[in-house]
Amino acid sequence: MWNRIEDSLFDDPKLQSVCVSLNLDDSTVIGMLVKLWGKAMVYASDGVLSAYDTKVWVKWAGWNGDAEGFKAALMDAGKPKKKGFIEELDGEIVLHNWQKYGGYQLEQMDKKAQNQKEYRERQSKQTKKPPETAEELLGLFNAEELVDLQANHPGVALKEQAERCLTWWKESNKKMVRPKTAYLNWLEKAKPSLPVAQSKPAIPHTVKCELRNE
């Protein structure tokens, strides 16, 4: 996990104010702020520090002195015109502008995690065992899709073409990563072998009931 630090922090008067109040150099204070923000992302992702005792969250920053003094230094840093690094909001002690920085970063991390999850799910689907029989291949299509396939390919025996398609893939020693797409591409080159009146969708048993109910 990483924290986004703006360049303006190094010249921020609030930083100098904390340095004076705690008698520390700016590098030390920046390090403490980074530690505090980092811990908050894990234990106070909403930016509310008062959910913990003051002595607890000042330890997050690596401060071993007077807890209330550290708290006051961060809160008073922006006075009189600005808010400090922390502020009191609706009776709670919160990190100033947390949603703009830490909250935004957490949101981006959540989006990234979701994208990775969806990617893994897509990869998992692609690595599933490919169909080995015509019934399994046609079973990837629902009843409505099979009806449309037959309508779009009049005279084509769907099951026969499914068998030929699978045979070609097996003999070519290639892995059928996207079976439905492979079969659709195959049908584009398939020639009619049945009279149009006799061509019916080769619907697997698993979806026959669905079609009959229609």
Describe this structure in words.
- The chain is mainly alpha-helical.
- It has two domains: 7-104, no CATH class; 134-213, no CATH class.
- Helices cover 55% and strands 4% of the residues.
- The protein has ten helices and two strands, in the order H-H-H-H-E-E-H-H-H-H-H-H.
- A two-stranded antiparallel ribbon has the order 1-2.
- Strand 1 (86-89) and strand 2 (92-95) form a beta hairpin.
- Helix 2 packs across helix 3 (54-60) and helix 3 (54-60) crosses helix 4.
Q: TL;DR?
A:
This protein is mostly helical and 214 residues long. The chain has helices at 13-22, 26-43, 54-60, 67-76, 102-126, 134-138, 143-152, 158-171, 179-187, 205-213; strands spanning 86-89, 92-95.
List keywords for this structure.
2 strands; 55% helix; two-stranded antiparallel ribbon; 214 residues; rod-shaped
The poorly predicted ranges are 205-214
Number of helices in the DSSP assignment: 10
Share of residues in helices: 40-55%
Distance between the termini: 54 Å
Strand content: under 5%
Main structural class:
mainly alpha
> How large is the radius of gyration?
32 Å
The ordered H/E elements are HHHHEEHHHHHH
Q: Characterize the overall form.
A: rod-shaped
Biggest β-sheet, characterized?
Answer: 2 strands, antiparallel
> How many domains comprise the coordinates?
2
- Quote the average pLDDT: 83
Number of strands: 2
